[in-house]
Backbone:
């Protein structure tokens, strides 16, 4: 008891000690587990493997990165992956905006929480169940084919388009939610003022609503972009023969760990660049 | 100053990682090619150790927890007193990796893993005299290029299967007879052709070229020099344009054939049976060029902590009754010639060509491609598996 009081007293007198004790555990977690594993990832990318037994040979070499930049197939896959992530992000933003506008401003206030819950419900279902459902929808003679048949066309089948569609479906709630919040917080009197000054709906949208909601769109896009860039399971299930970065990492991880590590640094770098770009929009403070 | 601290953290972490990694790289693993370290097989067995740690394909070590009716582990445990701990591996590469940890006593390795395990000194030679049921194993499975080196067996054969050509009988007409259905004529079914998603599939293209382009001089689809390899890769790149999807998960292939997304492509007997059971109109067969296949071997780790129990397991899994059970459950031809008397479906061994050595002559079992050509050529070097892996990524694009 005495000891306890004394310790408490000591801690009270030394705020810096108090702070460092408080932060030690989370900082250790961040430094060792998170930054540490990133460092190991990066460092092991410079190693090589024995071509026959696939054992990692700890000889320093930049061959993996040279291969990464000079092999056409890697460049192609990296560009494709970034393209998919951008396409998913744009599609999500385009779909999410009207939905969020409805749930935040048009729907009756008492319905709004229910609508938000409805948007979130897909997140309660397993990722795999949703992707396999899309596999059924997009398969030969599936729902997509059946719905498009009257118009004389057919579904996209398995492939890149299917992967983009499925990823858009998967990450849509992450885009709707921040936009919904931003639109909900938009002061109504600003819209009134815009109308009083003679602006039509389109003008109000462009000059008032969009600039205020844009940081939230950017915030949502961080989710949709990074989640799409790292995904490899969806593309395996509905992507047909398409390969993305994640698939390359996966196929190298057993046999050529250093190459997998080199490939793994690509999404990290891309996402860091994306975050830096998004920071300029103020998205990080509206997360 | 802050940078140095970060560097220090990184170095410390590295040391941790290195120490974990290097503890198992003891014996001869660093040299390229097939120069297995000189390991000795035991000459007699001692007392059992009370437990055994296994790495196996799904369905090979069943103790009734997946299906109460499928259980050949409990009796083994009762009879030998060896508690079985098994780890299911999803790929040959994973098996190789797990064996390197030294925590396992035995593994059911396919031909594309076994040579690697032998070369790295992770698998020890097996004294077959200590496995009584070994004498009933089909002779075609003994002393294979994938499970023995210089006449020394490195394991006990478990079973074998062929990679077949499966097609949708309603949509693919006339019925194909050749692998050309998925190579030169694949454009007929553009977007609905499927292929096995693994670098080892390059051997399927090589096997086809062996028959159709004799000028290339391919003798063994796992021993390809650069020119032969490039031809196989070029063929697969042309095939890629017609592929709908590749499969490695067998459930995915079943669903694709059921829905009609895939109408022609490689398969295994067990997948063909399951697809037909689910009502799809499919047929699977060995085309006229022959086929690639797999032959699994139970190998004992060079670092086995429970070698006596491991030998007991090797003998148990190839005993007639158990070998019949596991072959029937997994859908492959049993290795033990007496297993055919014990299958619940009396036609099982006929369906799977268990004793039909003529059938297996046409099957090129999976093997690990290495620089020293497996077909005996010494004037050229062959393309090693690591290059196959790279090429496979490029083929898929």
Residues:
């Amino acid at each position: 008891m005495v000891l306890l009081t004394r310790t408490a007293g000591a801690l009270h007198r030394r705020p810096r000690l108090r702070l460092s004790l408080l932060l030690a555990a989370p900082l250790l977690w961040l430094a060792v587990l998170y930054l540490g594993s990133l460092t190991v990832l990066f460092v092991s990318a410079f190693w090589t493997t024995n071509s026959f037994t696939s054992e990692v040979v700890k000889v320093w070499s930049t061959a993996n990165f040279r291969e990464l930049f000079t092999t056409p197939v890697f460049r192609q896959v990296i560009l494709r992956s970034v393209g998919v992530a951008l396409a998913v992000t744009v599609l999500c933003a385009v779909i999410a905006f009207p939905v969020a506008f409805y749930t935040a401003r048009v729907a009756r206030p008492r319905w709004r929480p229910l609508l938000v819950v409805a948007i979130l419900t897909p997140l309660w279902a397993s990722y795999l169940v949703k992707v396999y459902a899309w596999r059924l929808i997009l398969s030969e003679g599936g729902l997509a084919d059946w719905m498009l048949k009257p118009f004389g066309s057919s579904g996209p089948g398995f492939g890149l388009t299917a992967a983009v569609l499925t990823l858009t479906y998967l990450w849509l709630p992450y885009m709707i939610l921040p936009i919904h919040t931003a639109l909900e917080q938009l002061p109504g009197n600003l819209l009134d003022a815009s109308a009083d000054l003679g602006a039509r709906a389109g003008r109000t949208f462009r000059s008032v609503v969009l600039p205020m909601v844009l940081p939230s769109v950017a915030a949502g896009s961080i989710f949709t972009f990074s989640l799409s860039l790292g995904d490899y399971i969806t593309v395996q299930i509905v992507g047909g023969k398409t390969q993305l970065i994640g698939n390359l990492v996966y196929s190298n991880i057993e046999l050529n760990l250093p190459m997998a590590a080199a490939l793994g640094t690509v999404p990290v770098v891309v996402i860091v660049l994306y975050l830096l770009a998004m920071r300029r929009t103020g998205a990080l403070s509206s997360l | 100053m802050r940078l140095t601290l970060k560097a220090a953290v990184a170095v410390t972490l590295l040391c941790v990682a290195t120490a974990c990694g290097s503890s198992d790289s003891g014996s001869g693993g660093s040299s390229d090619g097939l120069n297995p370290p000189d390991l000795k097989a035991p000459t007699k067995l001692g007392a059992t150790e009370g437990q055994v740690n296994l790495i196996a394909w799904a369905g090979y070590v069943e103790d009734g927890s997946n299906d109460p009716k499928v259980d050949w582990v409990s009796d083994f445990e009762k009879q030998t007193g060896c508690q079985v701990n098994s780890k299911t591996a999803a790929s040959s590469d994973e098996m190789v990796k797990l064996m390197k940890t030294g925590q396992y006593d035995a593994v059911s390795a396919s031909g594309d893993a076994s040579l690697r395990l032998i070369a790295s000194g992770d698998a020890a030679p097996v004294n077959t005299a200590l496995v009584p049921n070994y004498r009933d194993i089909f002779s075609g499975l003994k002393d294979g290029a994938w499970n023995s080196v210089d006449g020394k067996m490195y394991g006990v054969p478990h079973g074998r299967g062929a990679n077949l050509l499966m097609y949708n009988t309603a949509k693919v007409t006339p019925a194909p007879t050749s692998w050309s259905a998925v190579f030169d004529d694949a454009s007929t079914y553009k977007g609905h052709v499927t292929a096995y998603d693994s670098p080892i599939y390059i051997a399927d293209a090589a096997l086809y070229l062996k028959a159709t382009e004799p000028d290339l001089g391919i003798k063994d689809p796992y021993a390809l020099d650069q020119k032969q390899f490039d031809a196989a890769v070029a063929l697969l790149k042309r095939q890629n344009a017609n592929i709908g999807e590749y499969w490695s998960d067998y459930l995915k292939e079943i669903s694709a054939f059921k829905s009609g997304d895939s109408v022609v492509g490689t398969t295994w007997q067990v997948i063909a049976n399951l697809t037909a059971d689910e009502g799809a109109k499919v047929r699977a067969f060995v085309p006229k060029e022959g086929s690639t296949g797999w032959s699994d071997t139970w190998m004992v780790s060079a670092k086995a902590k429970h070698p006596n129990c491991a030998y007991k397991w090797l003998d148990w899994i190839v005993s007639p009754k158990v070998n019949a059970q596991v072959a029937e459950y997994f859908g492959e031809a049993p290795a033990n010639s007496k297993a055919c008397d014990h299958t619940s479906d009396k036609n099982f061994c006929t369906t799977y060509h268990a004793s039909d050595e003529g059938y297996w002559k046409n099957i090129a079992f999976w093997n690990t491609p290495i620089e020293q050509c497996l077909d005996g050529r010494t004037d050229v070097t062959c393309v090693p598996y690591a290059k196959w892996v790279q090429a496979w990524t490029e083929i898929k694009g």
